[in-house]
Design goal:
The protein is of the alpha/beta class. Helices cover 49% and strands 16% of the residues. It has a 5-stranded mixed beta sheet with strand order 2-1-3-4-5. The radius of gyration is 22 Å and the shape is globular. About 11% of the residues have low confidence.
């Protein structure tokens, strides 16, 4: 009998806790708008160290939660068939969907310092020469810019480099 009482108490506790959690979840979940547009497609590297920097940058530039986010290793390198041609294909497919479904007006590409994808592709450690590292990123960012403009002449393309301290520098 004592065992039955404990089981019933545990069941009621679970039920009440679960019911509270479910009602809290239902009342606190926000709804997505049925009619929506994004201002931009943002391409970043997969490196987790830069996510907060990048999101703060976007928020400070009036893009908070108004963009489609795409992460591919090396960011701009994805348009240079890195690590494979499939990554380039994924970029073009996602850009096309973002353009058609969410009516984006721009593409923002955020490369970053100490990128493992760049180090892997070029078999080089850039820690000793930041300017050399930025120059290489500028080359691939500029190449990405040209490729996107060939297919989407009306999109604004913005290119950036994020350093290890979270400083974001526009690349022209």
């Amino acid at each position: 009998m004592n065992n039955c009482h404990c089981q019933r108490r545990n069941f009621l506790k679970m039920l009440l806790t679960g019911g509270f959690s479910l009602s809290y979840w239902l009342s606190s979940s926000s709804k997505a708008e049925a009619n929506h547009q994004a201002k931009a497609l943002v391409l970043t590297c997969i490196d987790f160290r830069f996510v907060d920097f990048e999101q703060n940058f976007l928020k400070n530039n009036q893009l908070d939660h108004q963009f489609d986010w795409l992460s591919l290793a090396g960011a701009s390198l994805a348009l240079a068939n890195f690590p494979t041609q499939a990554d380039t294909q994924v970029f073009w497919e996602q850009l096309d969907l973002s353009y058609r479904l969410h009516n984006i007006q721009k593409v923002i590409i955020l490369d970053h310092q100490d990128c493992g994808a760049y180090a892997s592709k070029f078999n080089q450690d850039f820690n000793d020469n930041l300017e050399k590292e930025i120059a290489l990123h500028r080359q691939y960012l500029t190449q990405a810019d040209k490729q996107i403009k060939q297919r989407y002449q009306n999109l604004d393309i913005q290119l950036y480099f994020v350093d290890l301290n979270g400083n974001v520098k526009e690349i022209s």
